[in-house]
Known about the structure:
Blueprint: E1 2-7, H1 19-28, E2 32-36, E3 42-46, H2 51-66, E4 72-76, H3 77-85, E5 95-102, H4 106-116, E6 124-128, E7 131-137, H5 145-149, E8 159-163, H6 164-173
Antiparallel strand pairs: 1-3, 1-4, 2-3, 5-7, 5-8, 6-7
Helix pairs in contact: 3-6
Amino acid sequence: MKYCAFLRGVNVKGTNMKMAEVCRVFEDAGMKEVSSVLASGNIVFSSDQKEDALKKVLEKAMSEYFSYEAFLFVRSQEEVQNCVNGNPFDKNEDLHAYIFVGNKGVEETLMQEFSNASKAEKEAAKVVNHTFYWQVPKGSTLDSTFGKILGKKNLKDQFTSRNLNTFEKILKKF
């Protein structure tokens, strides 16, 4: 089965890794047809294992090789496609649309955090089929109140996010 692993915190705040090395770690862990999409930690691969087992194996392999506490989230090709199809926001050149992948139920935590945050004009969030989607004006992602919440240490093992464009590039790589 085809999967994508979404690594959290890659090539930000001092956690720098070359995607060729990451792909090699995946191959050494038994994954097939391994390739990366962009330099932000999106690894497409094949495996006969189930998602839960893959998460454990790959987090352990990444943690050991790169000497850091790795967090990643594995989604099947079908799940990645469903995330793109479920995007509730219309395309708008002035806005970024983000899709969050994470642990079961994290969408509720994210929606609660978003509800409590002050918002920019046109900033919005929705949950569709247990997936959290966020729309924010371009240039405001890291400055928004919700954007700052995303870096909370107590949430680091719960989710990661990618913009819609990245998801579309991942789909083309399958």
